[in-house]
Amino acid sequence: MKQLVLVSFIVTAIWCSCNTHSQTIPAVNRQDSDTIYCSPSSSKLDIAAIEQVSGMKGVEKNGEYKITVPQNDLNVVVDGFKIIPPMGLGSWAAFTPCGDTAMLMGDIILTETDLAPVQQEVIKQGLSITAIHNHFVRNHPNVMYMHIDGRGKAGDLAANVKAIFDKIKEV
Questions:
Q1: pLDDT (tens digit, 9 = 90+) per residue, 109-126?
Q2: Burial class (CB in 10 A: 0-12, 13-18, 19+), 74
Q3: What CATH architecture is 28-170?
Q4: CA 153 to CA 126: how far, in whole Å?
Q5: How far apart are CA 106 and CA 124, in angstroms?
Q6: What residue ranges do the domains of the chain occupy?
Q7: Of 171, 134, 170, 160, which is closest to residue 56 (Cα–Cα)?
Q8: Taking the model in full, what pTM does it have?
Q9: Residues 65/47, Cβ–Cβ less than 8 Å
Q10: Residue-wise pLDDT tens digits, 22-78
Q11: Residue 33: left (phi > 0), alpha (psi -120 to 50), or beta?
C-alpha cells in the first residue's frame, strides 16, 4: 500500500510540474546580461572584410561564415593511435549576422602548455571564454578546447580572431 501511495504521489508531482501555467518568458526573448543575444536578422555579413582582415578564407552556409583551421602542427596520439585533424583537431571561428553587427563563436584547440597565453590573448581581444574542456583521454600531448564568443563589427571580430591565431603560432 505504501508503494502505491508513493507512486501516486510521484506521478502527481510530475504531472503538476509539467502542466504549470506560469508566465514564462519564451527562450527566444530572454536575454541574460552575460549572454550574447541576436534576434533573427536579414542583414548580411561583410565577408570581404572578414577575409581581408583575418587573412583566412572560409565557407558561407545559411548566413553563417565559418573559418576552419586544421591543427596540422599537433602530433596527438591516443593509446598509440595518431589523431589527424579531421578527427577533431580543427579550430574554427564562425561569424553570424546580429542586427547591425556580427556574433562570433569559435572553438580553439590548444596544447595544455599553450592554454594560458592564448587565454590571455582572448581576454585582451575583448572576447569571452565560454568553456575549456577536452575531447580525448589518455592522449599525448594533452589538448584542450577553448570556446570563445563575442559581438561587434565583422571586421573587428576578424581582427580579434587573427590576433588569437597569431598568438597560437607564436607559442
A1: 999 999 999 999 999 999
A2: middle
A3: 2-Layer Sandwich (3.30)
A4: 13
A5: 16
A6: 28-170
A7: 160
A8: 0.76
A9: yes
A10: 443 333 334 455 555 676 666 889 999 999 999 999 999 988 999 999 999 999 999
A11: alpha
